[in-house]
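Hey,
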Amino acid sequence: MHLQLESISKTPIIAIIGKPNAGKSTLFNRLIGKNIAITSDIAGTTRDRLYQEFDCNGYKTLLIDTGGLSDGPKENIEKEVQTQAKLAISEADIIIFAIDSSEELTKDDFSVAEMIRRTDKKVILVANKYDSKKAEENFYNIYELGIDDPIQISAIHDKGMDKLKEKIEKNLKQLKFKKTKHSKEEKNDSIRICIIGKPNAGKSSLFNSLTGSNQVIISDIPGTTRDTIDTDITYKDKKYTLIDTAGLRQKGKIGKGIEYFSSLRCISAIERSETAILIIDGTEKRISHQDTSIVQYVLESNKGLILAINKNDRLNTEDKNLIIKYLRYKFPFLPWAPVVFISAKNKNNTYKILELAEEINRERSKTIKTPALNNLLQKITIKHLPSSAKAQKPKFFYASQTGTNPPKFTFFFRHAKNLHFSYPRYIENELRKEFGFNGTPLILKFKGKGEDK
């Protein structure tokens, strides 16, 4: 076995902080070019509302709106604003500090500014809502915050955005981040795998087992992995990128803000990967709410999935059989996800994960020729005619594969909208029996004359 290790840079994180009503969400929407309602829901349930990829003049970044962290009772706002600022300062590479220039500076503004001044992070101060005489009168007072070069903007009226982007780009260059590469020669052919799961399930032990390194701190304290670590390895002449993250902490045992950023790191890792390895502590013999949330997000993201049951050395054959039955019961919609028993600590069966990830990568890239696909569909639709409670019965016309990573198929039916809800699952099961697709979700689209399902 040849194992080569190389650390790689992460996607830069830009956090927008500031007191409530400073216009953070409006600025967020303006920068990403979409009108998304920002909420404080837990990451994984409303993922698009927590963060978005933001292309800043060719730099691929992750933009965070922390607006949902300051929505508590009025008497708690100052505390929440401070918590928000501390978390953003800790996690972000660049901080956009937004203030409402149409109003006088408040204690919250000065409190956040004081924390920012004590750090070495890149900070951009934006005087938002700069579209009134009152804002002009207040502008020079902004220098009392002790942060140089405030930028005058009006996010709602799209004023000052180009100047803000130029400032962000300048900071990214100073931080040595590189612009996104697009040429075929520069394409990364590595299989990207994220290691996810709740704290203390064994993620860091697995990471170290696969890399042969101890660059991740391991302890019995949940949540000791503080950041996302990307590492390139080569195994049996195949390249892999391992993404190790802090786990999703148990809701209620920590503050909302910490949970927000912890979940964000996990979600970011899933988004950047092709296959997710969900580490489950086999000795617990149950699936936690965190595990269920992670699986749901992996499915929503259409990523490959491996269920890795850790602490194999403490399980007997009966235990393993019961765990497999339990997994299939808890996740009846995941019969295609392979289950592998490992001992990360003892390095038992851990490289099986890489072999499975390579197999899943092939399955996600698999293409089925149209004649073979239609021959199968003709057989299975005759074997099990499409049913409908309505008078207009669906009738199969033809099918084609319309994409890969993951595989996408479009099926054309007469009266497709009348298909029984169970029929797509029937077709998916038959597709898998015939063509495989181990470890990857499938995207099935059903179309009729001017109708979709």
